[in-house]
Amino acid sequence: MKGDTLYLIPARGGSKGVPGKNIRPLWGIPLIAHSIRHAVAAGAPMDDIVVTTDLEDIRKAAEAEGLTVPFMRPAELSGDHTGSYEVIIHALNEMEARGRHYRKVVLLQPTSPLRLPLDIKAAEMLWREDIDMVVGVRPAKTNPYYNAFEADADGMLHISKGEGKYTRRQDAPEVWEYNGAIYVMNVESLRKSPMSGFRRILPYPMPEERSVDIDTPLDFMIAESLLQQRDAGAV
Fold first, then answer.
1. How does pLDDT run across 22-51, given as a tens digit for each residue?
2. Across the chain, what does the average pLDDT equal?
3. Which residues contact 71 (CB under 8 A, 6 or more apart)?
């Protein structure tokens, strides 16, 4: 059976920064539940939303949201040094073995709980067959034309890009950084190379308040505060 989109939520059990991070409550529900609900609200069919995990408690949290977890992630893909690419390919292979074939993958990391369903839909609308990926971005905190520097062979600093003539940040070329919230990837491209080999990438700009990436207890506090403000209509 050929589908259009696999909505993949990667959630391994181990986390050094925040133990049990993916099932830790945020705004009253487990962290992973936010991404599941975003996918559902964006119109993803339940059969095409897949949580890939190695932990039984995460599987149970996904099932509590109405999902069926069709496979568990093997131990060799659950360590600190496992990359997203290997996890994505494993999930695609598992789904293809079950007769599900996809044109694109929408990767929704649980650590980005402040994205909105409209972000997922808007990023998908930008995707087309002749590009490798659409990715969520935010304005970069450092700009290589303005305030990012490198050391030369003598240890002296010089501007990373350009001639260092910009005296105001707003005059420098705009640069972006991935925010981790949304990746819309071409399966054909994934079968050819890891994401580091992608060359045709479109940005989907997102504001700071929807680009929080949770990695520490402080990030949880920031996300909780922003969700409270959102619920009150302040953001």
1. 999 999 999 999 999 999 999 999 999 999
2. 95
3. 52, 91, 94
Helix, strand or coil for residue 142? Answer: coil
- Report helix, strand and coil shares of the chain as percent, to nearest 5: 35, 20, 45
Does the pLDDT at position 2 exceed 90? no
**Per-residue pLDDT tens for 103-119?**
999 999 999 999 999 99
Percent of the chain with pLDDT strictly greater than 70 = 99
**DSSP H helical ranges for the chain:** 31-41, 56-64, 84-97, 117-126, 187-192, 217-231
Q: Which strands, in side-by-side order, build the sheet including 49-52?
A: 49-52, 5-10, 104-107, 176-186, 133-139, 201-205
Name the β-bridge partners of 204: 136
Identity of the residue numbered 81: H
- Nearest partner of 39 among 11, 77, 76, judged by Cα: 11
Say if residue 185 is exposed, middle or buried (CB neighbours under 10 Å; 0-12, 13-18, 19+): buried
